[in-house]
Write a structure and sequence with these properties.
The chain is of the alpha/beta class. About 30% of the residues lie in helices and about 25% in strands. It has helices at about 5-10, 25-35, 35-50, 75-85, 105-115, 135-140, 155-165, 205-215, 255-265, 295; strands spanning about 55-60, 65, 90, 95, 100, 105, 125-130, 145-150, 175, 190-195, 215-225, 235, 250-255, 270-275, 300, 300-305, 315-320. Helix 3 (about 35-50) runs parallel beside helix 7 (about 155-165).
């Protein structure tokens, strides 16, 4: 079982304290619902990982942990096998004592694109919605955040996060909570809220924007990254059964449409700070994620199109304030 006691103690003393009225019961229910063979296997992998306090920990430029004395070949092999047992790793990369967890996504590329444009995170409390393995939580800590909270209901991602935490010194500045944004009370408590790669998976994108807004302090900053299409303020793609082989894609807005949605939900100071086509260098198969990836989702004769005939994935980063 995952123990959330440290997180409860931390938020009991800050502006997140009202969350304690609902969160313990939610997490108790979540743990009961996720008692299965796979989850127990993943927890067992975490238990067998060594608790290491690195001599060198770099969260500013990467997520890298090193010791002045290298691990033995046997220790490296054992840690590698345990981390491999938590595959597929979709978000990364992590460099841990010369073990490179080369995830499907080079999430550092996205971080590099957005960080020049966001508010300073020094001393801030931040929320990452749909945080996956928690890669960006560690980068937020590296950027100076006092507390970085990630939410995502997927048990594998929680176990990946806890495995990384155990290997980098049990850092208590970042926490992964397995709930969805729709399960959170209106805390109005986070200085910055990140929603990256989530909006198009929501049946109601406007409801998602209101849920994000409800977590921000007054004048807090939203960083929203999403798939977009080319078009005017009246256009949004509603794909068929799949988009780039993803089943649960509901709305992909044009950039002007996304700006209108943000404005309609009461956000201000809305800016588009980056527009990028997803490259085969940023999303690809690796030894840590061996099933289909972007190359398999594109038209083999025209990489400007998905295999279904839609425009290939293009992503934009929007910044707005409450």
């Amino acid at each position: 079982m995952i123990d959330f006691g440290n997180f409860y103690q931390i938020i009991a003393k800050n502006q997140l304290a009202p969350w304690l009225e609902t969160l313990p019961a939610q997490l108790s229910s979540w743990q009961k619902q996720n008692v299965d063979v796979r989850f127990n296997h993943w927890l067992n992998c975490i238990d067998h990982l060594p608790a290491i306090k690195p001599d060198i920990l770099d969260l500013l430029h990467s997520v890298t942990a090193k010791n002045l004395s290298p691990l033995s070949e046997g220790e490296q092999k054992r840690i590698t096998q345990l981390l491999m047992s938590l595959s597929p790793w979709r978000k990364g990369p992590f460099s841990l004592y010369d073990i490179d967890v080369d995830a499907e996504w080079r999430s550092d590329f996205k971080w590099q694109r957005l960080t020049p444009h966001i508010n300073n995170l020094e001393g801030k409390t931040v929320l990452d919605v749909g945080c996956n393995s928690g890669y960006h939580l560690w980068r937020m800590i590296g950027a100076g955040a006092k507390l970085a909270v990630g939410i995502d209901p997927m048990p594998l991602f929680l176990c990946q996060f806890e495995a990384i935490r155990k290997l980098i010194g049990d850092d208590q500045r970042a926490h992964f909570i397995p709930v969805g944004i729709e399960d959170m009370p209106k805390l109005n408590a986070f200085d910055t809220v990140f929603s990256m790669g989530v909006l198009y998976h929501r049946r109601s994108p406007l409801d998602h924007l209101y849920q994000l807004k409800d977590q921000l302090v007054s004048d807090g900053q939203l960083i929203l990254e999403t798939l977009v299409i080319e078009g005017d303020e009246h256009q949004s793609l509603v794909p068929g059964e799949r988009y780039a082989q993803m089943r649960n894609v509901y709305f992909i807005p044009s950039i002007p449409t996304m700006v209108n949605w943000l404005s309609k939900c009461g956000f201000k100071n809305i800016n588009v700070v980056d527009i990028s086509k997803t490259s085969l260098e940023e999303q690809r198969k690796t030894n840590w994620m061996t099933t289909g990836s972007l190359i398999d989702f594109l038209d083999p004769n025209d990489h400007n199109k998905t295999i279904e005939g839609y425009a290939a994935p293009m992503r934009a980063v929007f910044i707005a304030s409450k």
